[in-house]
Design goal:
Elements lengths: L30 H8 L4 H10 L12 H14 L1
Bound molecules: iron/sulfur cluster.
């Protein structure tokens, strides 16, 4: 059975695009990765995967680590 990763738009791309080497990844550092994610068919699954794993590094599902922390906080408040 195929995994969502088989449909990932970032497959085969340079991982450095998704892991900008900066202390706190801002949207402008991640612009190229976010553009790829925006066109990715598994964007939502990818984001949920990263949220579930508390993925602290890199761009997942079109989000920076800070955006994911924000989503987690927001969900906690409304839970
Ligand atoms: S949403 Fe972005 S990081 Fe996730 S699989 Fe798609 S291209 Fe890769």
């Amino acid at each position: 059975m195929g995994s969502w990763r088989d449909h990932a738009k970032c497959r085969g791309l340079d991982p450095e695009i998704f892991y900008p080497q900066v202390e706190e990844v801002e949207e402008e550092d991640a612009a190229e990765a976010i553009a790829v994610c925006t066109a990715c068919p598994v964007c939502e699954v990818c984001l949920e995967h990263a949220l579930a794993r508390r993925e602290k590094e890199g761009v997942w599902g079109g989000t920076t680590p800070r955006e994911r922390r924000r989503i987690i906080r927001r969900r906690r408040r409304s839970a």
